[in-house]
Amino acid sequence: MADLLRLLLRVAEKAANVARVCRQEAPLFQLLVQEKTGDDKNKKFVQDFKTLADVVIQEMIRHDVGAQFPEMAAFIHGEESNKFENGLGESVTVTVCGTEEDTAALLATVLDGDHTAASLLARAIHQDPESIDADTDGLTVPLGPSELGIWIDPIDATSQYIEGREEVLEEGRLSPSGLHCALVLIGVYLRSTGEPVMGVINQPFNYKDPAGGGWRGKHFWGVSCGSINVCSVSRPKGGPGAGLSAVLSSSEKPVVKEALTSLCGPDKLMYASGAGYKILCVIQGLADVYVLSEGSTFKWDSCAPHALLRALGGGVVDLTKCLQSSSQAQEPQMELTYHQPNTDRKGAERWANRGGLVAYRDVSQLRSVIGPLKDKL
Ligand code: 2IP
Ligand code: CA
Predict the structure, then answer these.
(1) What does the entry list as the binding residues for Mg(2+) (predicted)?
(2) In sequence order, what are the residues at sequence separation of 6 or more whose Cβ sits closer than 8 angstroms to the Cβ of residue 269?
(3) DSSP run (H or E) holding 370
(4) Contact in structure between 23 and 32 (CB atoms under 8 Å)
(5) Per annotation, catalytic residue among 25, 59, 147, 301
(6) 153 is catalytic
(7) pTM assigned to the model
(8) Is 64 a catalytic residue?
(9) Is 9 a pocket residue for ligand 1 (Cβ < 6 Å)?
(10) Mean pLDDT, the chain, as a whole number?
(11) Which numbered ligand comes closest to the C-alpha of 160?
């Protein structure tokens, strides 16, 4: 299934292009940042353009993967539903059509006849991405398409994407907020066990060309399947250092912030936006762990970066399960899985990582955060 990896790298790059185009092209950008209130909201489409951009990216990925791997078509899931209602109260199902013209015509019905915006979006969807420079030669993945399912987060950290703050990245440091935190996430899991086996992350706004050439993206990928563990990011050199560093959501509970300040010290406790971005920080060694005590992330947020962490020898565990277990318990049983819903919940909550999570590269570092949290939560 190395072919699937190469396909996902290409579609993630296309998705990143769509995300960039929506910010670059004025007619799309206006829709993206438009605050719809009162009467205006009623006249316009029911969902906002941000949601349409997400749906379009998700459907494009579904279309391309389903075309090459039909066995996977029924197992491609995402954050958004593709049913839209336009200003006339008509229900429209957003799909990617065979031609750019047909996709533009369909999008125009959701965009209440805005043909300029519809054509710009359709062009980005049907454009071939630049070739992707990813060293996947010689990689074999001993899995078949009928064993696999996919989770897509078209744009994680949407609020940062909309706000669009351009931060200058400092080498070796994480960026607490801004466009860098927005990521396209595509994760592949085993239908039988729910283990994440392959992940592609595209960061559409990684680097801004100083000569005015616009934003360039960066991709990251990993495969973890039996004895095959390959990741485009190398494990940071050296074992766990003396001090542990952690990244949290700024909305994390005070009790968790206090416990981790005592453990890490104030300088090594960091905050960043985006669930996917925080796991990417752990992958890149910018933080050792990401701790989240709330059930506020979903399968589409964690599946892709989880696969990369596994390829590096780490993982993502359910925090509540870890806190409840005796210290001898085996961590693999605590790892998040991706195949079963929370059957007692409705809507998106069915796919919430309800017990919170800890993302880690090194199991000894995972243990060192669980201990201090045990009597606090
Ligand atoms: C969100 C996004 C948020 C994150 C939340 C995710 O996904 O990543 O930033 O909250 O958990 O579900 P926080 O930044 O506080 O960690 P989306 O942007 O796709 O809704
Ligand atoms: Ca998300």
Answers:
(1) 79, 153, 155-156, 301
(2) 245, 246, 248, 257, 260, 261
(3) helix 363-373
(4) yes
(5) 301
(6) yes
(7) 0.94
(8) no
(9) no
(10) 89
(11) 1
Q: How far is the CA of 294 from the centre of ligand 2 (A)?
A: 14
> Ligand 1: distance of its center to the CA of 157 in Å?
5
Sort 112 into a burial class: Cβ within 10 Å, 0-12 / 13-18 / 19+: middle
- CB contact at 8 A, 176 and 272: yes
Q: Which pLDDT does position 40 carry in this prediction?
A: 45
Which residue spans within 272-372 are E strands per DSSP? 289-292, 315-318, 357-360
The single residue listed with the structure tokens 């990925």 is 61
The candidate with the shortest Cα–Cα distance to 299, out of 180, 157, 188, 179, is 188
User: Which of 25, 64, 114, 156 is an active site residue?
Assistant: 156
CA of 241 to the centre of ligand 1 (A): 29
Lookup result for tokens 């074999």:
140
Distance CA 75, CA 165 (A): 35
Per-10-residue mean pLDDT for the chain, 377 residues long?
92 94 87 60 55 87 94 91 76 89 92 89 89 80 94 94 87 90 97 98 93 90 95 80 90 96 94 98 96 97 98 96 77 89 94 97 93 89
Q: Which ligand is nearest to the CA of 181?
A: 1
- Which position has the token pair 């001993």? 142
HSE-CB at 240 with a 13 A cutoff on CA atoms is 20
d(CA 173, CA 284): 10
Quick one: angle between helices 100-110 and 115-126, nearest 10?
140
Counting from 1 in the atom list of ligand 1, the atom nearest the Cα of 277 is 8
343 is catalytic: no
